[in-house]
Specification:
CATH architecture of the largest domain: 3-Layer(aba) Sandwich
Structural class: alpha/beta
Strand order of the largest sheet: 1-6-2-5-4-3
Shape: elongated
CATH class of the largest domain: Alpha Beta
Order of helices and strands: EHEHHEHEHHEHEHEHHEHHHHHHH
Number of strands: 8
CATH superfamily of the largest domain: P-loop containing nucleotide triphosphate hydrolases
Strand content: 5-15%
Number of domains: 3
Length: 326
């Protein structure tokens, strides 16, 4: 069976011409969740309660539970649609179903039944399996590679894909973004997933607390800027200008400066300036520095994101707080 991009699957959904069996895989959990949800559009909204079924497989931990789950899944998949041309069945955490943690006689029988279900899909049902990383040597993966449409979530094919990716990321963070703002980021970053992820994280930090991210917010993050001098970032923090500080940080990092050097610069700022401009937040600022230093040393996150978070926290003195508590 073919390997499809999320964009190609969305076209199938829009046209109502989906296949019977899909495997959504990859490391981008937000994209997988959003795409799985879009399959519900195959059924009219008022009829989804009767024709859309979500079945989490995370609790399938024994052969008996696997057998019970597969039996229920087979019944649901083979149930005729009600007042609709199609049913949609979405199995989340499907890795527990496809690659059982424990081998047993019950598990083997269940996988035999599951194999039959995959080989003889119901033409009136679209079955969507949402899984994490799967062993491509496993029995079920090899079968799905032949029987299902495989969708790799995380690859971005074009600017439209990039805009949807940005929107999904922002919605998952609990806010909204104007189409023009998403378009601006997509135009700047193209299909570079790393740049998109970094810019969206930076945008979410900059717009923290807002219900809607507008195009002016995006311009503050991705707009043209020039590195004024080596201390432009710390100067911006001194006056509480978070947007400028983040832009300058991005320019410093893009220029190849090591994160340790930048952290040292921020440490100098806290030691020499904060006793005067934010004495009440000095202790919290020092704590934030030590936490970031530890996270960098133990590789507890992307260095860019860790430093961006620290810069936002240090800029909080202007609002009378650091780390939400100052």
């Amino acid at each position: 069976m073919p390997v499809a991009t999320p964009a190609a699957v969305r076209k199938q959904i829009s046209a109502g011409t989906t296949d019977s069996l899909y495997l959504l895989q990859g490391e981008d959990d937000v994209e997988k969740s959003a795409l799985a949800h879009e399959f519900e559009e195959l059924v009219e909204e008022g009829l989804r309660a009767f024709n859309v079924e979500r079945m989490p497989a995370g609790e399938v931990t024994t052969g008996d539970k696997l057998s019970s789950f597969v039996g229920s899944l087979a019944d649901v998949v083979r149930t005729l649609p009600m007042m609709s041309p199609r049913r949609v069945v979405i199995v989340t955490q499907a890795e527990s179903l496809l690659v059982p943690k424990r081998e047993s006689e019950a598990a083997t029988r269940a996988l035999d039944e599951l194999e039959t279900l995959f080989k003889q899909p119901d033409p009136q049902t679209t079955l969507v399996l949402v899984a994490g990383t799967l062993d491509k040597r496993s029995r079920m993966y090899k079968l799905l590679a032949k029987q299902a449409t495989l969708v790799e979530c995380g690859a971005i094919a074009d600017q439209g894909d990039a805009e949807r990716w940005i929107k999904n990321r922002v919605v998952a963070a609990g806010t909204q973004i104007e189409p023009a703002a998403a378009r601006l980021l997509a135009e700047r970053d193209g299909t570079d997933i790393k740049r998109l992820r970094n810019d969206v994280e930076r945008l979410l930090l900059y717009s923290l607390g807002q219900k809607m991210i507008v195009v002016d917010d995006a311009r503050q993050i991705v707009g043209p800027a020039a590195l004024q001098d080596d201390w432009a970032m710390t100067n911006a923090i001194e006056v509480g200008d978070g947007a400028s500080a983040l832009r300058q940080l991005a320019l410093i990092l893009d220029g190849g400066a090591p994160p340790e050097k930048i952290l040292g610069q921020l440490g100098w700022l806290v030691r020499t300036k904060f006793p005067m401009i934010a004495p009440g937040g000095l202790r919290l600022a020092i704590d934030a520095l030590f936490r970031t230093d530890l996270d960098l040393k133990r590789s507890a996150g992307d260095p860019r994101v860790l430093l961006e978070r620290l810069v936002v926290e240090l800029c909080g003195w202007k609002r009378g707080r650091v780390s939400g508590r100052f």
